[in-house]
């Protein structure tokens, strides 16, 4: 209970700091949400600013923003009439979450599998090939990889559609583009820790007891080797979801990334701050769940 209380206080302070920085950074950038309208009459501009409370003093806007965030009323959108930020987040995140979940699942399965194979064949061609592929996965940005996938599989081979969302085949290329980097990172983490674990005394004892090689590797060694992967899961979830902003635009996927990119272009304050806070909450919660997962994987760890 004491740990949970401390973690809750830290979480609230972190979210308050993110909300405050986001609010004042948005106000510090020159321009406003209605500057794109060149011929907007002053009276109309004044009415719009009054409607969205932009004519209030900054301190009053800030307190109103904190209150709305606390009750999760993210306000109306400046760009999309008659739509609230809550509606936009709810609509777009369903697609982004589905794409992100697919990418994380692929990254975990491929990354752990490749890392184990590389460690068991340390110094041989399988190990070198796996690490070469992992280096490429880390080095190539997802927007470059997206373009390559579209060129090869959509234009040259014509195996997959170039974009949109809704059919299984439309999810293949964006999932691979998002999963490449985390797959490479997980593979390197698992390989490095697997090599260290396989040299420890308890593995020698397992072999001495006559346990099968598969049981030693996948039950005893892998359980210790995946602890760094669990640490990486919190930032991974946020990284995949925020990385999907670019990928969603490239593949014309109607996710939250599309709204966020457009809101930055249109200076839609409420959408920018609402989406930022939404992802901040996801990241903080994911990191808290990672800490709790340590205890389940390794009972020796105390919170």
From TrEMBL:
Family annotation (SUPFAM superfamilies) = MetI-like
Membrane topology of this protein: Multi-pass membrane protein
Provide the primary localization.
membrane
Specify the species: Thermaerobacter composti
- Keywords, in A-Z order: Cell membrane, Membrane, Transmembrane, Transmembrane helix, Transport
Among PANTHER family, the record links this protein to: INNER MEMBRANE ABC TRANSPORTER, OLIGOPEPTIDE TRANSPORT SYSTEM PERMEASE PROTEIN OPPB
Q: What Pfam families does UniProt report for this protein, alphabetically?
A: BPD_transp_1 (PF00528)
Q: Which Gene3D superfamilies match?
A: MetI-like
Record flagged with keyword ATP-binding: no
**Family named by the database record:** Belongs to the binding-protein-dependent transport system permease family.
List the transmembrane segments.
Answer: 7-26, 97-120, 132-159, 171-190, 225-251, 271-294
Q: Where in the cell is it found?
A: Cell membrane
Q: What is this protein called?
A: ABC transporter permease
User: Which InterPro entries does the annotation name?
Assistant: MetI-like (IPR000515), MetI-like_sf (IPR035906)
Lineage of the source organism?
A: Bacteria, Bacillati, Bacillota, Clostridia, Eubacteriales
Q: Does the keyword ATP-binding apply?
A: no
**Residue ranges constituting the ABC transmembrane type-1 domain according to the UniProt record:** 93-294
Q: PROSITE patterns under this entry?
A: ABC_TM1 (PS50928)
């Amino acid at each position: 209970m004491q740990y949970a209380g401390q973690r809750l206080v830290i979480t609230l302070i972190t979210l308050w700091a993110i909300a405050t920085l986001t609010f004042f950074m948005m106000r510090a950038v020159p321009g406003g949400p209605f500057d794109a309208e060149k011929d907007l009459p002053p009276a109309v501009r004044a009415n719009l600013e009054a409607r969205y409370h932009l004519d209030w003093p900054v301190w009053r806007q800030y307190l109103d923003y904190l209150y709305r965030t606390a009750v999760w009323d993210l306000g109306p959108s400046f760009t999309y009439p008659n739509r609230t930020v809550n509606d936009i987040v709810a609509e777009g995140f369903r697609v982004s979450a589905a794409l992100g979940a697919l990418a994380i699942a692929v990254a975990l399965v491929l990354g752990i599998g490749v890392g184990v194979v590389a460690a068991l064949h340390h110094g041989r061609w399988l190990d070198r090939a796996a690490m070469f592929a992992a280096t490429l996965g880390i080095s190539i940005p997802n927007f470059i990889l997206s373009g390559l996938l579209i060129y090869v599989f959509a234009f040259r081979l014509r195996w997959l559609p170039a974009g949109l969302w809704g059919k299984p085949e439309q999810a293949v290329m964006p999932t691979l583009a998002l999963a490449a980097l985390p797959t490479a990172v997980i593979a390197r983490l698992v390989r490095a820790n697997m090599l260290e674990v396989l040299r420890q005394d308890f593995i020698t004892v397992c072999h001495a007891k006559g346990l099968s090689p598969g049981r030693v590797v996948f039950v005893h060694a892998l359980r210790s080797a995946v602890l760094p992967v669990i640490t990486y899961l919190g930032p991974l979830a946020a990284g995949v979801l925020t990385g999907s902003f670019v990928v969603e635009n490239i593949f014309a996927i109607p996710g939250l990334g599309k709204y966020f990119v457009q809101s930055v272009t249109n200076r839609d304050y409420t959408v920018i701050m609402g989406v930022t806070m939404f992802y901040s909450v996801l990241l903080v919660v994911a990191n808290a769940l990672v800490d709790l997962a340590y205890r389940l994987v390794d009972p020796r760890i105390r919170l």
